[in-house]
Amino acid sequence: SLASACWVRYAERVLGRPVTAHLCTAKSPQQVMGSLVKDYFARQQNLSPEKIFHVIVAPCYDKKLEALQEGFPPALYGSRGADCVLTSGEIAQIMEQGDLSVKDAAVDTLFGDLKEDKVMRHDGASSDGHLAHIFRHAAKELFNEDVEEVTYRALRNKDFQEVTLEKNGEVVLRFAAAYGFRNIQNMILKLKKGKFPYHFVEVLACAGGCLNGRGQAQTPDGHADKALLRQMEGIYADIPVRRPESSAHVQELYQEWLEGINSPKAREVLHTTYQSQERGAHSLDIKW
After folding, report:
1. With CB atoms 3.0 to 4.6 Å apart as the test, which of 55, 73, 161, 256 could cross-link to 152 if both were Cys?
2. What is the pLDDT of residues 187-196, one digit of tens each?
3. Where is the Iron hydrogenase small subunit domain (predicted)?
4. What strands lie across the sheet with 2-3, from one edge to the other?
């Protein structure tokens, strides 16, 4: 299975069915949040979806394209999940131009009076998605193995890393993280040749992951602000980890909004399908 929150549109348009057939059907976080805001939150506030203008802040420009192409069936929501996507760099520019400060700003919540004691994060690294969480879940569900520490091993380069689970001397799970188009291109070539050994691959278009996205704040000469990236990584690493399944809010959403974990509504809201065309081998001849 290939999972990505940013590379999907490219796979649909350029790589076609040989690749999209392997894409995880789970919606991206942006798409799920769109459903959450325009359906659950709208009903909580007794508002029609059209009365809500939903703005997403993203680390890259791919999320703008995703928002343009992702629409909800009118019978369900009657509006687009994300009305506007701004990159974090654009937000920084707006704040600089408007002399704004967020130091004293209060953070609201979708849950009204259900306030969190503190900000929590998932158990992945700062630039990745949920490989570590899925790896732990698969290890427990498939092999009854409790994995506390997920160990990444760099192979070709620091942006292609592997995670494995061994049992009785045999590798039973083999996951990978492939960041940047050079690594993705190599991955696709092996996949099409039938020489791809991975059960799950997390794919991110940007080398270095989302913190290195082109939409992030940059230096005046147009390069990634490495000092700022290191600062963000440090801040993120200091945030306490809480696994999603232990969150009372997540459990509440499954029961009140999605009508259960494996309900038809949960499958409808949290999963998607992909549009693609059959492509020839020339689709791989793109120079990066």
Report:
1. 161
2. 998 888 888 8
3. 222-278
4. 2-3, 200-204, 170-179, 160-167, 153-154
